[in-house]
Amino acid sequence: MQRIHEPVDLMEAQMLMSMLRSEGIEVFLQGADLVGGMGELPALGLLGLMVSDAQAQEARELISSYQQATPLVDGTSEPQPGVRHGILEC
C-alpha cells in the first residue's frame, strides 16, 4: 500500500475516493478517525489516501488530472461575466 495523496479535508477525501473507485481503484482513507482531535493535533498530514502499489501510479495520474481540470460554467469553457471560478461574484 502507498499513501498517494493528502486531502485537505474529509469532503475532498470522499470526493477523490469516489472518483478513484469509479475507475476501479480500491482506495482507503487513513486518519479519518483523527479529524475530531484537530484542535489538539497538528492539522496537516492527518488524512491520506492509500492504494495498492500496483494502482498507485494510475491513481496519482487521475488525481493530478482532476486537480488540473478547469470547471465548466453553464456548459461552456468560456469565462462568464460576474463569475469567478464557478462562484458568482456579488
Would you summarize the structure shown here?
The protein is of the alpha+beta class and 90 residues long. It has a single domain (2-69), classed as Alpha-Beta Plaits, CATH 3.30.70.
Which keywords apply here?
90 residues; alpha+beta; 2 helices; 18% strand; DUF2007 domain-containing protein; DUF2007; N-reg_PII-like_a/b
Give a description of the structure:
This is DUF2007 domain-containing protein. Residues 1-66 form the DUF2007 domain. Helix content is 29%, strand content 18%. The chain is of the alpha+beta class. The protein has one domain (2-69): Alpha-Beta Plaits, CATH 3.30.70. Strands 1-3-2 form a three-stranded antiparallel sheet, with helices on one face. Strands 4-5 form a two-stranded antiparallel sheet. The protein is globular and about 40 Å long. It starts with a strand and ends with a strand. The model is unreliable at 83-90 (pLDDT under 50).
